[in-house]
Amino acid sequence: MAAAIVLIDGNNFYASCEAVVDPAVVGRPLVVLSNNDGCIVSRSAQARALGIPMGMPYFKLRQQLERQGVVVRSSNYALYADMSHRLMTTLERWVEELEIYSIDEAFGLLHRPAGGDLTGWGRALQREVQCYLGLPVAVGIAATKVLAKIANKAAKADAGRSGVLDLASEHNPDALLASVAIDDVWGIGRRLARWCRLRGVADARALRDMPSGELRRKCGVVGLRLQQELRGHACLPLVLQPPPKQETCVSRSFSRPVETPEALREAVATYLVRAAEKLRQQAQRAGSITVFVRSSPFNGTSLYSQAATVTLPVASNDTAVLLAAALPLTARLFRPGKPLHKAGVLLQQLQGDDLLQHHLLVPLTPGQQRRRERLMAVIDALNCRYGRGAVQWAACGLQPAWAMRRSRLSRAATTCLAQIPVVHAR
Predict the structure, then answer these.
(1) Nearest 5°: phi and psi at 276?
(2) What are phi and psi of 147, to 5 degrees?
(3) pLDDT at residue 113 in the model
(4) pTM for the model
(5) Which of 43, 101, 323, 381 could disulfide-pair with 47, CB 3.0 to 4.6 Å?
(6) Cβ neighbours around 421 below 10 Å, total
(7) pLDDT tens figures, 218-240
(8) Which domains, and CATH codes, for the chain?
(9) Nearest to 208 by CA among 220, 194, 196, 218
(10) Contact 31, 15 (CB under 8 A)
(11) Strand order of the sheet with strand 30-33?
(12) b/e per residue, 317-331, with b = 16+ CB within 10 A?
């Protein structure tokens, strides 16, 4: 049996998640905004039909959206992450191997029966995801990852395919490849697309058929793999276990400028607490911390951008240790008269928590280490069960004025008990 690669992609994922928790917006045009209600980052199919552009600042389109009756939502990351986890858990039952590619995309491996058409399989998968989660998905099926990407996009673009396309059953696959612009081929960047167009290679079929030697001279084995994928020879295996991260970063733009050292300390502490949680989830420790700040380039003054780094004597993912090391850096970064627009923390020199190199001058007994690890585990468990911030560090403040603005936030109805809708029956 030949192997088949499937790409399952959630349609308008953020907007679709909003419709799951609020049935009143189903069938209505809806957009989701970025951090601080800045730009449009997701649109429902109805909003797309109205011609609402992606990435436009909300303040420029506010009046137009109101006239057109468009529903506007702030980004609800807790909801999207939970729905993504539920989606991936559902997909695991349908494929032999699964690679989680992004929050709303996954590659899967299937074995195709001789002469078998997997279109029916894709439609059954769609029905189950819609039934269990209420999410619409598109399914592209082909022999390779690159072709599965093309099939998935074609399945969404053509309403007659109903969101499923098995490229092996396509009557004229060459015509389909010819309809895909070179810029839309997965793995082709802006510079390489320009290089191809200058040589008359304007679509996926032309890239597949161009001389391999010329492509190899330009981009080496990476280009050859891409071309072989277009020819139906799988060169990009599924990544079932992502490689360990080299860095972990948490940064945010402020809802209003930060103009005091106390507010900057609160912001850095908040971001560092979240970064430490990520480290523990990744089973890693950090050896150094970089704190960075930046003013707005649009406030009429010169741009202020600075960073400071501290190296830890013993790598750690203990929130208290990281706070004690990083918070003194804020005094070096703050400048009176320089309102700050953004700050963040970058954890570097990451290592697995299965190996810890101690320091001769920083005694840390195994018993002390185990107690701190248990304490961090209890805090993480409480925040997971009762919602992030249920147990908070005092350095983060209570109700900071700089916190991310989300004035149109929907319920976290799948992760917070207090926000589950209540139905009163009579």
Answers:
(1) -65, -40
(2) -70, -35
(3) 77
(4) 0.85
(5) 43
(6) 8
(7) 888 999 999 999 999 999 999 88
(8) 248-396 (3.30.1490.100)
(9) 196
(10) yes
(11) 40-43, 30-33, 71-73
(12) bbbebbbebbbebbe
